[in-house]
Each structure stands twice: as C-alpha cells, then as structure tokens.
Amino acid sequence: MRNPLTSLASISKYFPDRFSVKNAISSPLVHLSSIAPLFLSLTISCIGVLNPSSVRAQGAGALPSHTTIIAQAPANAPAELTKLLSEIDAAANSRDVKVLMKFYSQNFTNSDGLNRQSMEKAISQFWQRYSTLNYRTELKSWQAEGNAFIAETETTITGTQKTENREMKLQSTIRSQQRFEGGKVVKQEIVAERNQLTSGENPPTIQMNLPEQVNVGQEYNFDAIVQEPLGNDILIGTALEEPISEKTFFSTSPVELELLASGGVFKVGKAPETPENRWISAILMRQGGITVITQRLRVVK
To answer: In this structure, are strands 132-145 and 104-110 parallel, antiparallel, or unpaired?
Structure first.
C-alpha cells in the first residue's frame, strides 16, 4: 500500500539543522510512497464512523440517473438509522475491524473499485499506522428508498503518528454517500475529499486551488501555494496525478522531488477522455518541515 508516512522518515534527513540544497536534490528519486492510497484508506474508514449527532455523506453507491432523492433534514432521521450509525461509530472507535465489518454487506461496492475484502485490508492497515485518531462526522441529509436508507455525510478525521522521533499530523475531510440495506452498508460513493499530512516544527502552510469536478478532456489549473514568505529557505517538492482504483491503492512507486524556483507548485492538467476519479497531490518541503496535500478530482461527462 502506498503511504507517505513510510517515506517521511527518510525525507526528514533533508530538513534538519544541516539542510542544504545539495542534500535535498542529490538523490532526486525519493521513495516517497504515493499519497493516494493512504488517503483512500481514510475515505474508507470514515464509513464506519458515522455519528448520528454529527455526520455528513454525499453520494452512496452511484444512484441511477433517473432516481430522484428528496433529502430529509438530519433532525428528522429515524431512530433505526441513528442507532445504526451509533453502533458503527462505536465499532470504529474501538478499532475492532471484525466487529466493524459486520456492518458491511458481503456484496459491498465502493466507487473506487473496492469490495468488502479490500476494504477490510485498507482499514486494518490505516488503524495500525496511527497512535491517535479522531473522527467527527456530521449527517447532512438522508432519504428512505423502500427498505433502504441513503445517508449523506461529511467526516473530518485527525490523527497523529510518531516515526523515528518525528511526529506526523493528519487532517482529512471527506464527503460521501452511503446506501444502507438491512442494517449494512451496500454501496458507497466518495464525492469529495481533501487530505493533509504535515511533519516538522514549521511545515509550509499551503493554499491548494483545484476544482472538485471537471469534464472529460477539459484543461484545469492546479496551484499549491506556500502562504509564508520563504526568505532564504529552500523549497523542494512536486505535484502528482493518479487515477483512483484498487490497483493504484495497493501499489508503490518512487516520487521525484524538484528544487522549486517559486513559492509553490503551479500546473495545468488535462482530464482524461473517460469519466473517473483522480487524486491530485502536492508535496512541499522546506527546512522547517513538510506538507503533503491530496484532493480528489472527479472527471465527468
């Protein structure tokens, strides 16, 4: 599973007291695992952390285009749904993956190509990495469809991990839509996500400009701008674009970091000719620390 956390320990040698341009770029192919899989596992995990008093999901397994859903206010949610969300929340916060997976249908499908088995694997790997995790989920709307419930939620996840005496902090916000049938999640569609990982005493504060959705074949601008003045600091980094699928989720490849002449990364991308989801990521590192941001880009017709 590609995971930036495993690479931060090796990258950290570039920004202690002896930081220099030579050290930073002498080995450009840094084995920085792609951010995408880590943040996908965040998306996955949030399914199991829906708190009835605070949750938000947009999109549950792609609904047919002819289906009209009239959203209901969270305050009107039936006790059956809020109880289910509360039980899932408890299972996730106890990090008991076997109990949590009881809330997933055997036929579970995810818009990123994951099934119940790969979902369990991703959640287990994610929980093993963090010493602390906190989920705050908010129910924004729901709708009954026959015997099923469709819940729209937004989940905020924060966490910390220490690796080789270096603390890494995680912040993630995910919007998704879940479909529940018979007390189990049968479908999920992730419609938006933004994730940030930081390490060091003074990691760059980044403003990331990227649309949530573009049309097939459309050009789009992607900017990741460091907000603080750099002064004499050296800035290195790169931008990544990856399709979201089970294959990319569990694979690994090196990432090339470049010396940046300006205060950030500025790119023009072009969407593929077929609808799909992609992760767009920025990695920026200065002497005080490193910031990694990933945002989902939806490509539609």
So the answer is: unpaired
CA angle (7, 25, 195) in 5-degree steps: 40
Q: Is 270 helix (H, G, I), strand (E, B) or coil?
A: strand
Strands 219-226 and 264-270: antiparallel
- Place 252 in a pLDDT band, splitting at 50, 70 and 90: low
CA distances 284 to 154, 224, 234, 261, 278, Å, are 27, 9, 10, 12, 20
Q: How many whole angstroms separate alpha carbon 278 and alpha carbon 292?
A: 16
- 32 falls in which pLDDT band (50, 70, 90)? very low
Tokens of 37: 């899989």
| Amino acid at residue number 286 | R
Instruction: Flag whether pLDDT at 200 surpasses 80.
Output: yes
- pLDDT digit string, tens, across residues 115-151: 999 989 888 888 888 888 877 777 888 999 998 999 9
Q: Which residue has the tokens 């400009």?
A: 209
Whether 126 contacts 152, CB under 8 Å: no
Residues, the chain, total?
301
Q: Is the dihedral of CA 63, 67, 71, 76 positive or negative?
A: negative
d(C-alpha 75, C-alpha 52), whole Å: 10
- Please report, as a single letter, which amino acid is at residue 15: F
Exposed / middle / buried, residue 158 (Cβ in 10 Å: 0-12, 13-18, 19+): middle
